[in-house]
Amino acid sequence: MKVKLKNVFVIYFLVSVIGLMYALLQLGQPCDCTQHLKSASDLIHAKEKKLSQLQNELKRLQGREKVPEPAEQALPVIYAVTPTYARLVQKAELVRLSQTLLHVKNLHWIVVEDAPAKTQLVSELLAQSHLRFTHLHTETPKEHKRKESDPNWLKPRGVEQRNLALQWLRENHELGKKAVVYFADDDNTYSLRLFDEIRSTKRVSVWPVGLVGGLRFERPLVENSKVVGFYTAWKPNRPFPMDMAGFAVALDLLLANREAHFDLLAERGYLESSLLQSLVSIEELEPKADNCTKVLVWHTRTEKPKMKQEELLQKQGLGSDPSIEV
Ligand code: UGA
Ligand code: MN
Topology relative to the membrane, per the entry (predicted)? Predict the structure, then answer.
């Protein structure tokens, strides 16, 4: 038989095409090793999921704020306004206060430094606090600042700082959101129960303060659920003979009275009155803490630490490491 060259080519062509098609069809088929690959990719997938869960957890833990639950967001906000100034015990005071405030729902901490600029110490403390906060600063004018040698009662303290917080609140409050303002000094001791009392303030609420005014406590006197006077020994004729820690003001009232502020020139003991006089009358005060029979805040004052050894060592050039923050 005579084999035509053309036929050889045709057969060769057909065989190659069929071979090629077979090879192509095989590509999509599973091979023996697929099972291994599949379980490996499942494992990677599971690990990736775990990793992202852990990353979220880490974000939450490192987060600047704890995430409020919806029920918490419905509560009136408590704005705690804290004036503060640099001194040896400042960090200790602020750590203690911030960790109390962490337990309070829907709270916004306004910290106002009595300083020409925000300090690193307070900035870092706030950033790591997990609290919702606003950080402000304003320096008390020199002529109004207490000198080291002055007795501590000579000049009112934290006045411009609280006024700056009032200004911030009037400019930045969330429209329509109910809120209460409480002036929480950095050195007092606060029961968590106090904040439950503060939260329901309609205009101005009041309660006793422990360890103040040379007494075991000072308190508003209540009859038929109305404030009728004050139990106090020092300057009882003041319009509102109360400590700063003994009242809270509804933000609405501060917005309705945009001029109300603390008076830098207020006579000793009259600072609280200088604000309250332009806001309420005594009959309008809302008594809290079981008709003002429970002490839930204490006017504690921290002793100034003695630095005798530190100073002696410093003179010898052996003072403590200044890079360690106290
Ligand atoms: C009492 C009241 O409890 C204060 O609320 C009130 O401001 C003060 O009297 C006053 O008459 O001015 P006291 O314990 O004697 O308080 O005052 P501090 O606790 O020394 O100061 C009150 C707040 O102001 C604190 O938060 C403190 O850190 C801050 N402060 C104090 C400054 O911001 N700058 C200062 O130079 C001193
Ligand atoms: Mn104090």
Answer: Single-pass type II membrane protein
More confident residue, 67 or 135: 135
Residue of 302, 301, 294 lying closest to 209 (CA atoms): 294
Domain definitions of the chain by residue range: 5-62, 70-298
The answer to whether the predicted template modeling score (pTM) of the entire model surpasses 0.85 is: no
* SS3 call for 190: strand
Helix (H, G, I), strand (E, B), or coil: what is residue 258? coil
pLDDT, tens digit, 9 for 90 and up, residues 50-95 = 776 665 555 555 556 667 788 888 999 999 999 999 999 999 999 9
Tell me, in angstroms, the distance from the centre of ligand 2 to residue 298's CA: 10
d(CA 158, CA 162): 6
CATH fold for the domain made of 70-298? Spore Coat Polysaccharide Biosynthesis Protein SpsA; Chain A (3.90.550)
- Of 125, 133, 129, the closest CA to residue 79 belongs to 133
- The tens digit of pLDDT for each residue in 189-200 reads 999 999 999 999
User: Of 113, 160, 197, 272, which is the active-site residue?
Assistant: 272
Beta pairing, strands 204-206 & 247-250: antiparallel
Amino acid identity of residue 28, one-letter, is G
Buried b (16+ CB within 10 A) or exposed e, 44-56: eeeeeeeeeeeee
CA 262 to CA 138: how far, in whole Å? 15
Residue with the smallest CA separation from ligand 1 atom 36 is: 157
The residue whose CA is least distant from atom 30 of ligand 1 is: 158
Around Cβ 286, how many Cβ atoms within 10 Å?
A: 21
Asked whether 285 and 204 are in contact (CB, 8 A), the reply is yes
Residue 153 identity: W
Are the C-beta atoms of residues 149 and 120 closer than 8 Å to each other?
no
